[in-house]
From TrEMBL:
Family indicated by similarity: Belongs to the major facilitator superfamily. Folate-biopterin transporter (TC 2.A.71) family.
Membrane topology: Multi-pass membrane protein
Statement: the UniProt record of this protein carries the keyword Transmembrane helix: yes
Compartments where located: Membrane
Main location: membrane
Entry protein name: Folate-biopterin transporter 2
InterPro entries, per database record: BT1 (IPR039309), MFS_trans_sf (IPR036259)
Pfam families cross-referenced by the UniProt entry: BT1
Keyword DNA-binding: no
Keywords on record: Membrane, Transmembrane, Transmembrane helix, Transport
Chain segments annotated as transmembrane: 44-65, 118-142, 148-171, 192-214, 220-238, 276-297, 309-328, 340-360, 443-465
Length: 507
């Protein structure tokens, strides 16, 4: 009872503090009190790490990398949109093996540490793109080479993807661990991750088109060494207890134990059923983004948007994601998972009709400019996608068994990434079958219509998702009992970053 009261007390403190603040001042101070509450409960260093990895590295850096890569494939490599879809899928393959990175961080310390070395290794490859484009070494190769062979370019992008995946798994392990220790704050942590990523992406997309125009897509790749350096900085400051007298001969046994724990958990119906829904819902939402991007920038069939305009349009997406995160945090987080996913999936199919109206130029019939129509489309689609993604993240964090949080959360995320990979390749195949090329877009409307219909079909599988809320337990009884044993871990087991002030004073 005492532990439950302590878990709720931080939010109560925030509410009491907010009661003393009125008007606009209260609106501005509320997020500060909320972040202060998270920093107090989970340690400020956890909040700092989330902001760096999700906000600066994946958000801002990922936005720059996405726009730069799209123009690199279109204007430098000159590939067809269906081919660009396939190559984007290839570069995301390291995300499917995320459980391997997660398992390494859980059971194999390097030089006595479980987290710090993996941040540093990831930073040596990382470019900060959440979709996995270009690590530091490979990024510089593409940036400095006049015109790298397409095969080598794809290999470089895939190498960078591994770095992104490792960094993502490491911070995800921290989120999953804290979600178990502070169960009542699980949704707040996911909101922090989403808000950081959305704000970072908003800034990144806003400046991406300008940089692509001024220094070209290859020049943008050179800028991405900065987010990678910050990730390395996080790994350098990470203060975690050193693992002493670790018996590396037991690594194989630990791998087997972790594998058995994962398999035991996956066999539980309330675990594998939502996992199956996650995968199928992403597979059936075919990704045809490259076809739309080529149409956006085409001078004859499309609106012929400039690089700066494309960046501004894409910057609306993070605003939609940000609004979705705020809406979920303040109004939707206590609703059952099944209800939220049902409406999110339905809205996903309906919002796709905006693309259809745009390609058929219906917007011009009503006097709506292309730019305004695409801005509305981008904001609505990203908002709906985020509303679907956030309950899946919270549900995934609640399915993680204690002891292998990073590994199992990575497994769940790899299932989603496998679905996204299948979606990308399926969308590329659809574009190829319908003969949508760099200059031919006659059947693009049909590809959009087929995609929208398939987006609604997962509603037939919604019964696979449990109706429980964030306080429900979905783990087997034997695993739940182990979870109770780690509700109050030793302070030395907490993941912390060394305070910046102390590091400066020590010099």
């Amino acid at each position: 009872m005492v532990e439950e009261e302590n878990l709720e007390s931080p939010k109560e403190v925030v509410m009491l503090e907010n009661e003393h603040k009125k008007g606009c001042c209260g609106w501005f101070l509320t997020p500060i009190f909320w972040i202060k509450m998270l920093a107090t409960e989970t340690h400020w260093s956890f909040v700092f790490g989330v902001v760096v990895v999700y906000g600066i590295s994946q958000g801002l850096g990922g936005a720059l990398a996405r726009v730069g890569t799209e123009y690199y494939m279109k204007d430098v490599q000159k590939v067809q949109p269906s081919e660009a879809q396939v190559y984007a899928g290839i570069t995301s393959i390291p995300w499917i093996v995320k459980p391997l990175w997660g398992l390494l961080t859980d059971v194999l310390p390097i030089l006595g540490y479980r987290r710090r070395p993996y941040f540093m290794v990831a930073a040596s490859l990382l470019n900060g793109d959440p979709l996995g484009f270009l690590g530091v070494t490979s990024m510089l190769l593409v940036s400095l080479h006049g015109k790298l062979h397409l095969a080598l370019a794809v290999v470089s992008l895939t190498a960078g993807s591994a770095g992104v995946a490792i960094a993502d798994v490491t911070i995800d392990a921290c989120v999953a661990q804290n979600s178990i220790i502070h169960r009542s704050l699980a949704s707040d942590m996911q909101s922090l991750c989403s808000l950081s990523a959305s704000i970072g992406a908003l800034v990144g997309f806003s400046i991406s088109g300008i940089f692509v125009h001024l220094i070209g897509p290859k020049g943008v790749f050179g800028l991405l060494t900065i987010p990678a350096a910050l990730v390395f900085f996080v790994g350098t400051l990470l203060d975690e207890p050193s693992v002493t007298n670790f018996n590396y001969k037991q690594v194989n046994e630990k791998f087997l134990d972790a594998g058995k724990a994962m398999w035991t958990t996956l066999k539980f119906p309330l675990v594998w059923r939502p996992c199956l829904y996650m995968y199928l819902s992403f597979v059936l939402s075919l990704n045809i983004h490259e076809g739309l991007f080529y149409w956006y920038t085409d001078a004859k069939a499309g609106p012929s948007f400039s690089q700066e305009t494309v960046g501004y349009i894409l910057s609306v997406g993070p605003i939609g994601s940000l609004l979705a995160a705020i809406l979920y945090q303040n109004a939707l987080k206590d609703y059952p998972f099944r209800d939220l996913l049902f409406w999110a999936q339905l809205l996903s199919g309906l919002s796709g009709m905006l693309d259809l109206m745009l390609v058929l130029r219906v917007n011009l019939m009503f006097g709506i400019p292309d730019f305004m129509a695409i801005v509305i489309d981008e904001g609505v689609s990203k908002m709906v996608g985020q509303l679907k993604w956030m309950p899946l993240l919270v549900l995934s964090s609640r399915l993680c068994p204690p002891g292998i949080e990073g590994t199992f959360f990575a497994l769940l995320m790899s299932i989603d990434n496998a679905g996204l990979l299948s979606s990308s390749w399926g969308g590329g195949l659809l574009l190829h079958i319908l003969k949508v090329t760099r200059t031919q877009f006659h059947n693009l409307w049909l590809a959009i219509l087929i995609r929208n219909i398939l987006r609604v079909t997962p509603l037939c599988l919604i019964f696979l998702v449990p109706r429980g809320d964030l306080d429900s337990s979905f783990l087997p009884a034997e695993l739940a009992s182990k979870e109770d044993e780690i509700e109050s871990p030793k302070e030395a087991e907490n993941i912390e970053l060394v305070p910046l002030v102390n590091s400066i004073e020590d010099k």
